[in-house]
Amino acid sequence: MTFEHCDLDSNGRPLLVVRSADGRNFELLCSFDYVARDGRRFRAPIGAVSDGASTPPELWTLLGQQWLAPFGTYWPAVFIHDGGYRNWLQFVADDGTVSLANLTRDQADDLCKEIMEVLNVSIGERSAIYEGIHMLGWRAFREDRVAAAA
User: Fold this and answer.
1) Looking at the DSSP assignment, which residues form a beta bridge with residue 35?
2) Domains: count for the chain
3) What is the CA radius of gyration of the chain?
4) Cα–Cα distance, 99 to 101 (Å, whole number)
5) First-to-last CA distance in the chain?
């Protein structure tokens, strides 16, 4: 359960190097790898795009504090989750061969949850994000896969 090929902040979270033309969609300028608990290595490649957590604006603050804004401590997890849905997330085999991870929706959701745990995202935020994507993400998954195939 590690992040590799990227700089880490003082809490061990990856510092994502990105650029944006619209302030909402962010393109990765430096790839990073996540080695999962089961040993599989996933890569967010240069050029991958994410819009952060797809949370409704009504949830971006709670009692005057930032809560579920598109970008928070969970951003690396939701970035990889976007790759699982949009099918740009890569799998790196032990021999270094790189291929599309081609995750199912459940696999992408579970990987996001695992990464949020590794990032020490609060249980409230982690649960809200996971339950939201797991219960409501079916349409986004379908639309993202159609767009990726086009």
Assistant:
1) 2, 41
2) 1
3) 15
4) 6
5) 33
Confidence at 116, pLDDT banded by 50, 70, 90: very high
Residue range(s) defining the domain that contains residue 15: 2-149
Phi and psi angles of residue 49, each rounded to the nearest 5 degrees, phi first: -125, 140
User: What is the pTM assigned to this prediction?
Assistant: 0.86
Residue pLDDT, tens place only, 117-150 = 999 999 988 998 899 888 888 888 898 888 888 8
Residue 89 neighbours by CB under 8 Å, 6+ apart: 42, 43, 44, 48, 80, 83, 100, 101, 103, 108
**Residue 148: which of 87, 101, 92 has the closest Cα?**
87
